[in-house]
Amino acid sequence: MTGSDEPAEPEEDQKFDKGIEFLLSCLGMSVGLGNLWRFPTRAYENGGSVFLIPYLICALLFGLPGVYLEFALGQYQGKSPPFVYRRIMPVLEGFGWVAALLMATVGVYFMLIISWISVYLFNVVIGNSGKWGRCDNKWNDAATCFNIPAQELCSGAHPAGWNTSDTPIQKLIYMNGSCHDKEDYENITLVSASAQYFQNFIVRPSTSLTDFNSINWPVFIAMIIGWVITVLSIWRGMKFVGKLSYVTVGLPYIIVTILFVRGVTLEGAGDGLRFFFAGSDFSALWNYNTWTAALTQMCFSLSIGFGGLMNIASYNRRKHNCYRDAIYLIIGDTAMSLIGGAAVFSTLGFLARKRGVDISEVVASGPDLAFSAYPDAMNQMPVPWLWNFLFFVMLWLLGISSEFVMVELVCSCLRDRFPEFCERRIMVVGGVSAILFVFGIVLTTDAGIYWFELFDEYGAGLGAVVSATSMCVIIAYLYGLEHFKFDLNLMLGAGGGCCSIFLGHNSPYFRVNWKWISPVFGVILIVLSCWKSYPHHNDPVAYPVLFDILGWTLAITPFTMIPLCAFLAYRNFKKHDIPTRGLFLVQKQHPSYQRISSDWSPERKRIGLRLPCHEPGDQVAVSLSTLHSVNKNSDLESI
Known about the structure:
GO terms for molecular function: gamma-aminobutyric acid:sodium:chloride symporter activity; metal ion binding. It is found in: Membrane. The protein is an all-alpha fold. The protein has one domain: Hydantoin permease. The protein contains 24 helices and four strands. The strands form two sheets. It has a two-stranded parallel ribbon. It has a two-stranded antiparallel sheet with strand order 2-3. It starts with 18 loop residues before the first helix and ends in a 9-residue tail after the last helix.
């Protein structure tokens, strides 16, 4: 008997060797394709710089408190999300499974993006990178294909047959092998060669969501390879993933900085940067779509509400300063979004200057924003194949590092729920990956791009906001902020000084935020996010009614785990003749059970004595004398 309220440390083999590996693993999950593709896309769709204002406000009011809360919950209890919630109250276990299913959903369509990148990378390696910047390939539509480098051929030239020099040079455009007056193409939507390469060679889309004709075999093979690499990496454990993050996270920061420097030196880059950072159309701030897009993008980018951060933190040492890392994560993620966004928009400014049009007319929004704007920039650099190779290696590393953590979360939840799986790690990782691969096969068809948009529109953002908001409500109103304050003190110390009061890990700001600001903010934006226009993109042919029916089904399905898990917990308590009220009490496996239960009423204490002494899934009832060796985090020595 120790007489201490401080919970025991996690087992040594479950912890990261170094604190930096934890931070890099979190950056590997949060900093990824969402920063270089989704963030510029959302900014592009919401007026450029105007989008930055709600995004940064959401990061301060919702992002930092949410990341810190996930870190603290996972680190203190050393368990996956379902068991973190179950220890607070058994009826809440379903919220953890909601997070796991949301993460699995993202993992399905994230692998499609990784597969696209892999096809690009393969074509760079075999020497085909120069082709996607030209308009003379079989996949090009010569009537609308815009060749960026070829515009230099019109420098100092006039269209054939012109005998006057009154026409300004900048009015000329190179199309179909010769220079033409730009006004000849005023009513024609021109598409860059790189955008046509992405759409017509990589994606190869059909006409609609239900128009299935063939498998996109290059993407299909790339997806298989991606899942095999994921299985082999996760099989080695989270510590191995943490060590991989030195490369998968560090290298992309270096490469994107180089691309940013190159981008801002291109002609017309200033126009793009002004559109991104200094846009003057502030009317978008009064559009609720801008705010909902900012919050969902912030949750998506930081991975709040998906449970992944909570799961990674469970591998931390108990005394690790997770508050400091929460701040570093916000800074690192926002920096990557801003640098990546600046690189994209500087390139868009360059493309707009070359074409003589407004930036908003350069390229359609969506995934092809990154898959066409960046390659166009790469082809303007010396030794373009090298820059294309580095760029797509960077994208691949960012994508696969996120995928590792997504799949590991699901596997960790299953191992906690079924302890016998701990000895069959490869079976669990392989089984989960195989199931996600099967769901992802539809994405490799010629209708896959429409299913990708379905997953992107309904499968992640809204669910993550609901999950993150629920987490704040559970801690603030069901577990209790005073109890959580004590937990933080046990991990990080009581703190002191005037700076700690306002900026420290136990600042009243966080308690006010978790109790009022984040829940209210989240609920408002949840309601606004549910207000959608139909049909999607105003295109009833490509996106029929079935698109929205399946989308809402995908969004709602994870939340069915809440009543299902509550019912299973109720049935389990009934089976062992434990009072139903025990479903709403902190469980014995919780590290702070001894302290919290000491303040209970006599009736609650009598119920507490009958609470189970082991987690669901344990095959053998564990006695109090041996419970400490089974549950690495519980402080039951003082009972």
